[in-house]
């Protein structure tokens, strides 16, 4: 069963497969809300409207039936499903259990302790970022020192940290950084008067002969001296602002060259291959595997596996940079047995993919020319 709940600008689509419906079963330890309802349909509707709900327990009134309109039925909304916690699906004679496809079951979807909510956006999930982080997966640190209004006092320095920031009063001022007041004798004479009969010269912060490093450039960055300051620039094959540089995945990836990954390869019976053992990281299709992932539906039982994985949207342009895309692992009909999110990057003459462990076994990422 598929349903969509609409609340203002919020759209949510959820899939409750019939094979996720179990009589005399109850998922324990994951209930986030309990309600009294008229019938099972109302319980499902409440799950759609609760943004953290991905499964439900329904307890029918022992003196009634499911068609009765009394508020005598118990509805428990859960923030997990039986696939994540199969040991918590217990036998209970008075309960029904119904689960949905939970795109958040892959814990790598959202980063930095963000909250993952299933059923939102074209990817099938969305991430609610904690304070100090932003981005589709909350992967980016918010630089509070560049936001307005200013976080720190006008006489304080702002230093960005991972997920937060620190305010420090400037020399000659005291306070907590948000409020700084001048101290006695804090006003000094201009520098030129303090340095009478002395020469002023520029310090080369990039000079490596100093006993103490005078610049904050990253180990994989180059330092460029300027008049009164310096600039940092990441070295070739690295990306960042110069103060933080990471290896560019376009030059740091693993290759996949298996011919049986091609979308036109029919899987022999009892010879299925699974990507569950594929280490997470960046990959490129080469050689007999082709050059990229298909962006049109690949039937099940192709690519050397049961559930064939393909991109549900187009590849990014070079200007798009690194983007998020959803992979559908085809079922036997026209739907997705599973789906999960990956990162894709256009490297100019080829594409690379940041693969994560598929939601279920007997699933594999497909390729094409």
From TrEMBL:
The keyword Oxidoreductase does not apply. GO terms for molecular function: calcium ion binding. It comes from Pocillopora damicornis. Residues 100-139, 141-181, 202-246 form the EGF-like domain. This is EGF-like domain-containing protein. It comes from the Eukaryota. Pfam families: D8C_UMOD, EGF, EGF_3. The keyword Signal applies. Disulfide bonds join 110-127, 129-138. Coiled coil: none annotated. Keywords: Disulfide bond, EGF-like domain, Repeat, Signal.
